[in-house]
C-alpha cells in the first residue's frame, strides 16, 4: 500500500513537473520522449524529427521570419494566423476589394494572389557545431575579443558545412552561448494568398479580447507555396508549380477533450527563463511600469480620436493594435509575476544555487556570480529605464519623433558612409514615408507628443536628460513644433528632403521638429547608450556563466534553452484553469459564445450575417461536436510570440488546432512559467474547416486535405 502511494506521489510530481519547456526537436530522445509518452503521445521522437525520412518538422515552416505555418495538403497548402497574414491581406485590399472586411477565397489556383517579400523557411537538418564555434575561444580573456572570434568561427562553419545549392546554413546560439547549432534551411519565395475570413471572424474580439480567455476568434488564413519544376525554392513566376511537401499534416475531425495530449511545434521568438531575481525585479518594478505608462497615455489619446472620427479610426486601427498588443501583455506579465511570486521563487533558487556551488567546490568559478549580478543590475537600472523612455517615446510611439529619428539616422549615414549612401537612403525614405503620411493625423500626434514628452521630462531619470526638457512648458513646446516643423505633412517633408546632402542637412537642422529630435538623440547617445552597452556586455557574460553553472550543477533538471526563433517542440494537455478565487475556466469555447458576445454594428464584436444564419440553422455539417460547434481551446503548451500559427497536433500527429495567443493571467510565461495559470490559446481545426467549407463555400480546399477520425477507428 505504502509503495503504491509512493508510486502515485512520484507520478503526481512527474506530471506536475512536465509542464513547460520549449525543446529542440532533434534532441527529444530520452527524457522528453518518455514524458510525452506518459502524457499520451502515440508517435515517436523519430516521427517528429528525422533526417532519414519525412517527419513532422517537414510540415512546419517559419512564416516570414515572425510567425509559424504548417503544410496541410500534398499541394503545398499552408495555414497560419489571420494576424500573421494580415499584411498580405491588407496589401491586396482596396476600396473595391476589401478583403480585410469581406474575406478572400481563391476558387481556383489561378486566382491565388502572389506576394512580394513573403517567404517561408523549412528546416532541413539540425546540427550541433558547438566545438567548431568555440574553437580557440577559451584562451581569450577580453569579452569583446571572445565575441569576435566566435563570430569568425560561425562564419567559417556556415561557409563550409555541406548543403545543396538551393539551401542555406545558419548558426544560432543556445543556452546563452553555451551551445551552437547549425540549421540547414530551404526558403521558398513564391507564397500566394489562398484565403482569409472576414476580420469579424479572423480578428473577432480584436483588442478587447486580445490575450484573453474565453476566446472566440477564427484567427487563420491560408497560403500556398509554389516551387520550380524540380520542387526547389525560387522567386515568383507564373510557371511555378504547387510545392510537393515531404510531409503534410492530416487534419483530425475528432477534436480534443480535457486532458488529451497536445503538442505544439513552431518558432518561439524570445524568452528569458533563467534571469536572476534582480533582473525580474527590474522588469516588475522599473521598466514594465514605465513602458506601460507611456503606452497607456498614447493609446488613450488615439482611442479618444478614433471613437469620434471614423476616418481616424481607419488610419490608426492597425497602429493602435500594434501598440496595444504589448502594452496589454506587459500589464498581464507584471501581474502574473507578482501573483506567482516569481521574484521570491528565484531568490529561493538562488539560495539553493549558492549552496550547490559550495558543495561542488566551485566557489572560484561561480561563487561571486549572484553578487556580481546584483551589483551590475543596480548599476544598469537608471540606464535601462532611460533607454526604455527613449525608445518608447522617441523611436516608437510619437510619430513625428520616430520620423525625425529616421532622419537623424540619415544624417549619421552621411557622416559615416558619405553622399551615395545618403542619397540611396534618402530616396528610400521619401518613398516609404508616403504610406506613413496616409495614416498620419497631425492633431492626434500633437496630443500624443504633448503627453509623452511631459512623461519623458517628468519621469525619466533626470541625470540623463537634456536640461531643456526638465520642467519645460510642454504645451508651448508642442505648439511650437507642430506649427513650425515640416515633419507633419508629406508635401512639406518632400521639400525638406529635396536637393543634395548639404542643402538637405542644412534645411533639416533648421527645422524645429528635427532639431528637437536631434537634441534628444545626441543626448541619449552620449549619456545613456555607451554606459548601458558597457554594463550590458558584463551582464551578458555573467548570464552565460550562470547558465553554464546551472547546466553543470543541476544535471537532472529539465533545463531547456530560451527561445531564439528556432524550431521548438512544446507539449502538454488540454486543460482549464482557475486564475482566481472561485473562478474556473473551461478549456473549450463554442459558437454559442460568439453569439453571446455579439454586438450588432460594433467594430470588434459584430458577427457576419451568414455566420448567424448557420448558427440559427445549426448547419455545422461534419464539424460539430455533440451538436455544438467548437471554436477555441486552451492547453498547457509553453509558447510565446512567434508561435502564432503553430500547429497543435494530437497524440498521433494529426492537426487539431492552430496556436494564436496566451491567456491573460499567464503572459509572464516568457520569464516564469507557472503551470497552474499559463495556457496557450488555439483555434479548433473544426472551426477553421467549418468557416472554409460552410461559411465561405470553398469546399475544394477542404477536399485537398486528408481528414481523419483517430478516435473512431
Ligand atoms: N496577442 C497575440 C500575439 O501576440 C495576437 C496579436 C494580434 N491581435 C491583436 N488584437 N492585436 O501575437
Ligand atoms: N500572439 C503571439 C504571436 O503572434 C503568440 C503569443 O505571444 O502567445 O506569436
Automatic annotation (TrEMBL):
GO terms for molecular function: dipeptidyl-peptidase activity; serine-type aminopeptidase activity. The lineage of its organism: Bacteria, Pseudomonadati, Bacteroidota, Flavobacteriia, Flavobacteriales. The keyword Protease applies. Catalyzes the removal of dipeptides from the N-terminus of oligopeptides. It comes from the Bacteria. One of its GO terms (biological process) is peptide catabolic process. Residues 1-17 form the signal peptide. Belongs to the peptidase S46 family. Keywords: Aminopeptidase, Hydrolase, Protease, Serine protease, Signal. This is Dipeptidyl-peptidase. Its EC number is 3.4.14.-. It holds the Pfam family Peptidase_S46. It is an enzyme of class 3 (hydrolase).
Amino acid at each position: 500500500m505504502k509503495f503504491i502511494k509512493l508510486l502515485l506521489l512520484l507520478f503526481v510530481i512527474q506530471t506536475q513537473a512536465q509542464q513547460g519547456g520549449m525543446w529542440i526537436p532533434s534532441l527529444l530522445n530520452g527524457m522528453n520522449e518518455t514524458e510525452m509518452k506518459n502524457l499520451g503521445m502515440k508517435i515517436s521522437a523519430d516521427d517528429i524529427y528525422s533526417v532519414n525520412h519525412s517527419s513532422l518538422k517537414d510540415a512546419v515552416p517559419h512564416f516570414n521570419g515572425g510567425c509559424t505555418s504548417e503544410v496541410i495538403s500534398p499541394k503545398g497548402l499552408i495555414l497560419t494566423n489571420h494576424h500573421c497574414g494580415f499584411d498580405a491581406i491588407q496589401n491586396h485590399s482596396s476600396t473595391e476589394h476589401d478583403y480585410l472586411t469581406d474575406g478572400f477565397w481563391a476558387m481556383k489556383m489561378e486566382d491565388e494572389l502572389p506576394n512580394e517579400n513573403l517567404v517561408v523557411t523549412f528546416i532541413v537538418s539540425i546540427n550541433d557545431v558547438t566545438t567548431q564555434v568555440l574553437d580557440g575561444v577559451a584562451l581569450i580573456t577580453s569579452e569583446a575579443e571572445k565575441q569576435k572570434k566566435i563570430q569568425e568561427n560561425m562564419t567559417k562553419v556556415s561557409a563550409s558545412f555541406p548543403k545543396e545549392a538551393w539551401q542555406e546554413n545558419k548558426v544560432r546560439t543556445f543556452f546563452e552561448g553555451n551551445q551552437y547549432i547549425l540549421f540547414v534551411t530551404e526558403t521558398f519565395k513564391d507564397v500566394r494568398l489562398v484565403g482569409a475570413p472576414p476580420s469579424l471572424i479572423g480578428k473577432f474580439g480584436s483588442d478587447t479580447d486580445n490575450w484573453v480567455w474565453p476566446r472566440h476568434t477564427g484567427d487563420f488564413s491560408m497560403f500556398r507555396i509554389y516551387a520550380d519544376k524540380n520542387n526547389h525554392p525560387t522567386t515568383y513566376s507564373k510557371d511555378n508549380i504547387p510545392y510537393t511537401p515531404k510531409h503534410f499534416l492530416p487534419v483530425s475531425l475528432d477534436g480534443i477533450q480535457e486532458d488529451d495530449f497536445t503538442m505544439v511545434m513552431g518558432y518561439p521568438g524570445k524568452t528569458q527563463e533563467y534571469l536572476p531575481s534582480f533582473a525580474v525585479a527590474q522588469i516588475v518594478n522599473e521598466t514594465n511600469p514605465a513602458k506601460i505608462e507611456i503606452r497607456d497615455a498614447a493609446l488613450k489619446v488615439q482611442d479618444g480620436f478614433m471613437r469620434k472620427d471614423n476616418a481616424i479610426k481607419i488610419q490608426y486601427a492597425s497602429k493602435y493594435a500594434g501598440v496595444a498588443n504589448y502594452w496589454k501583455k506587459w500589464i498581464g506579465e507584471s501581474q502574473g509575476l507578482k501573483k506567482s511570486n516569481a521574484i521570491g521563487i528565484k531568490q529561493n533558487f538562488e539560495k539553493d544555487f549558492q549552496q550547490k556551488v559550495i558543495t561542488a567546490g566551485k566557489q572560484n568559478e561561480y561563487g561571486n556570480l549572484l553578487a556580481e549580478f546584483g551589483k551590475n543590475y543596480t548599476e544598469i537600472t537608471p540606464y535601462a529605464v532611460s533607454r526604455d523612455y527613449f525608445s518608447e517615446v522617441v523611436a516608437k510611439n510619437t510619430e513625428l519623433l520616430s520620423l525625425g529619428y529616421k532622419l537623424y539616422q540619415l544624417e549619421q549615414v552621411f557622416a559615416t558612409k558619405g553622399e551615395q549612401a545618403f542619397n540611396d537612403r534618402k530616396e528610400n525614405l521619401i518613398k516609404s514615408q508616403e504610406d506613413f503620411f496616409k495614416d498620419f493625423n497631425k492633431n492626434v500626434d500633437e496630443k500624443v507628443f504633448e503627453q509623452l514628452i511631459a512623461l519623458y521630462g517628468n519621469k525619466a531619470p533626470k541625470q540623463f536628460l537634456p536640461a531643456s526638457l526638465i520642467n519645460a512648458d510642454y504645451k508651448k513646446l508642442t505648439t511650437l513644433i507642430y506649427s513650425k516643423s515640416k515633419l507633419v505633412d508629406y508635401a512639406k517633408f518632400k521639400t525638406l528632403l529635396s536637393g543634395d546632402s548639404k542643402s538637405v542637412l542644412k534645411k533639416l537642422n533648421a527645422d524645429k521638429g528635427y532639431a528637437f529630435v536631434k537634441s534628444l538623440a545626441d543626448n541619449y547617445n552620449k549619456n545613456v547608450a555607451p554606459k548601458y552597452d558597457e554594463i550590458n556586455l558584463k551582464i551578458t557574460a555573467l548570464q552565460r556563466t550562470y547558465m553554464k553553472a546551472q547546466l553543470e550543477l543541476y544535471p537532472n533538471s529539465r533545463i531547456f534553452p530560451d527561445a531564439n526563433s528556432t524550431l521548438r517542440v512544446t507539449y502538454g494537455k488540454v486543460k482549464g484553469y482557475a486564475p482566481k478565487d472561485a473562478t474556473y475556466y473551461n478549456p473549450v469555447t463554442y459558437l454559442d459564445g460568439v453569439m453571446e458576445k455579439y454586438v450588432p454594428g460594433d467594430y470588434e464584436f459584430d458577427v457576419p450575417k451568414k455566420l448567424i444564419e448557420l448558427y440559427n440553422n445549426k448547419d455545422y455539417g461534419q464539424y460539430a461536436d455533440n451538436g455544438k460547434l467548437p471554436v477555441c481551446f486552451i492547453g498547457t503548451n509553453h509558447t510565446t510570440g512567434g508561435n502564432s500559427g503553430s500547429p497543435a497536433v494530437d497524440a498521433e500527429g494529426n492537426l487539431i488546432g492552430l496556436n494564436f495567443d496566451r491567456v491573460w493571467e499567464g503572459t509572464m510565461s516568457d520569464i516564469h512559467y507557472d503551470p497552474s495559470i499559463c495556457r496557450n490559446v488555439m483555434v479548433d481545426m473544426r472551426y477553421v474547416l467549418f468557416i472554409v467549407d460552410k461559411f465561405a463555400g470553398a469546399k475544394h480546399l477542404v477536399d485537398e486535405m486528408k481528414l481523419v477520425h483517430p478516435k473512431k477507428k
